[in-house]
Amino acid sequence: MSTYFLSSRGAAGSTAVYVAGDETPLEYSELWSLVGSRAGAWSESGLAAGDRVLFSPRRDIASIVNLHALMWLGAIPVLVSPRQFEQLDACADPTLGLRWRLDGEGELPELPLDAASVVAPVSLPLDAQVAVLFSSGSTGAPKAIPLTRKQILASIEQSASRLELKTTDRWLCVLPLYHIGGLSILLRSARIGGAVVLMSGRFSAERSVDLCVTGQVTQVSLVPVQLERMFSSIEKGMLHKDFRFLLVGGAAMSEQQIQQACALELPVVRTWGMTECASQIATTHLGDVRGLLWPLVETRVERTESGRLAVHGPIAPDGYFLTQDIGEVDEGIRIQSRADNVILSGGEKISLTRLQAVLAGHPDIVDCIVIARENADWGQRPHAVLVARSSRVPTNEALFAYLAEEGFRRREMFDTLSWAEGIPRNEMGKLQWQELQSLL
C-alpha cells in the first residue's frame, strides 16, 4: 500500500506550478494545502476512492489542483478533451461507471486554510487504477485506457533516471493534460519536486521559444508539428545556458525536421511511447537526435515473429503489452511502421507509413496523409491527401518519378490523391479521422 505521488523532494518554499506570464507562482506547501482542502470538501460530499469522475482539465492552476485532489482521494479521473466532455456518448464506453462530471471550472479556496479542512492522501495498492485516458482516435473511435498506480510510478522513476530530472527543473507544459504527454509532466514534477510551467490557451511557438531563450523554463515536451512551428523563431545558440532538452514524441519526426534540429544544434530527445504504457518506453540519448531509441531502465522491448514490438516491464499493463509498431531491436530500437497501417493489395503488403514518410519529404509538400481505399480489383489501394507548400503543385507524373527515385515500384505508389489546404489534426498532431473523411 502506498500514498499519493507527492515527494518530499519538493521543498516547502520551492515553486510547484505557475502559468507563464503570471508573477504569482504556487509553492509546494500551498499546492498540497489546496489539494488536501479540495479533496476534503469532495470527501464530505460523498466522493470516495474508486469513484470515476469525468474531467476535462485545462492548462491552469484550478485544473492542476482538481486533478491532484481527485487522485489524492483515490478517485479515478476519466480524462477527456472539451469536445469529448460534451459528446461523451459518441466517444466513451457506456460501461465506464461514471459518477461525477467536472469540466475544469471552479474557484479555489483562499490561503491560508483551516488545517482541519485538509485531508490526508488515501493509501492505494499498486494495482489500483488511478486514471483513465483515451486513445487519440486517429483511425476510429477513441478507446478508454486505464492506468494503474504501479505503471505511473514506474514511468515517473524510469523517466526521471533517463532524463536526469532535478528539483530545479522548470518543465514547460504545452500539451493537453487529458493526454498522457501532458499528464506525465504534471505527475513527474510532483514526484521529483520540480516546477510545472503552464502555457494557458492555445500553443504559441513564439511564446514557447521566448520561455526557452530567457531561462524561464529548462525543458519542454512537444509533438513534431509544434517543434516545426518553433523552428522559424529559433537561431543556433539562442537557447538559454540552463535550458536542457526538448522531448519530442507523439509521432515520428520527419527527416526534414531532424535535419533542421541538427542544423540549429537543438538538444532534442526523441521519444517513443504510448498511453497504454504510461508515456515513455524508449528515448534517444541527449544530443543524438538521429540515434537509436534506448528502452528505459527496467523496460525490455522485443521484436515478435510478426515484426511487432512487445514491451515488458512495470510500465506495461500487467507487465506486457504488444504494440502495433513494427521495428527492429538490436543494440537499440528502430521504429519502421505500424502493423495497422499496412494494407494487402493484390496479395502484396504495402506500408502506408513508408509511403507517407517519403511523400512528406518532397520539397513541394508541407504535409500529407496516406490512407487505404477499397478497390474492387485489388482489395485496397493507397490514397494520398497532400498539402502543397506553395502555389507550385507537383503533377502526378512528377510525384511518381520522385517515388521511383526513392525505390518504390508502381504498385507500391498511390492510385489516387486529393489536394487539401490542411490535414485536420488535434493539439497532439494526431489525425482527426472524421474531419479527414469530409475532405475526401
Describe the structure.
With 440 residues, the protein is of the alpha/beta class. It has a domain at 346-437: ANL, C-terminal domain (GMP Synthetase, Chain A, domain 3, 2-Layer Sandwich). It contains twelve helices and 23 strands. The strands form six sheets. The chain has a nine-stranded mixed sheet, with helices on both faces. Helix 1 (28-44) crosses helix 2. The relative contact order is 0.09. The model has no long low-confidence stretch (mean pLDDT 87).
Summarize the structure.
It contains twelve helices and 23 strands. It is α/β, with parallel strands linked by helices and 440 residues long. It is globular and about 70 Å long.
Number of helices: 12
Share in helix: 25-40%
Rounded to the nearest angstrom, the radius of gyration is 23 Å
Topology, number of strands? 23
CA(first)-CA(last) distance: 53 Å
Multimeric state of these chains?
single chain
| Fraction of residues in β-strands | 25-35%
State the CATH architecture of the domain at 346-437: 2-Layer Sandwich
**Poorly predicted runs of 5 or more residues:** none
Shape: globular
Strand order of the biggest β-sheet: 2-1-9-8-10-11-12-13-14
Descriptive terms for the model:
440 residues, GMP Synthetase, Chain A, domain 3, alpha/beta, nine-stranded mixed beta sheet, four-stranded antiparallel beta sheet, 12 helices
Annotate the secondary structure layout:
Blueprint: E1 15-19, E2 26-27, H1 28-44, E3 52-55, H2 61-73, E4 76-79, H3 82-86, H4 88-91, E5 98-102, E6 129-134, E7 144-148, H5 149-163, E8 170-173, H6 180-192, E9 195-198, H7 205-213, E10 219-222, H8 224-231, E11 245-248, H9 255-263, E12 268-274, E13 279-283, E14 294-295, E15 300-303, E16 308-312, E17 320-329, E18 333-338, E19 342-345, E20 348-351, H10 352-360, E21 365-375, E22 379-388, H11 396-405, E23 416-419, H12 433-437
Helix pairs in contact: 1-2, 5-6, 7-8
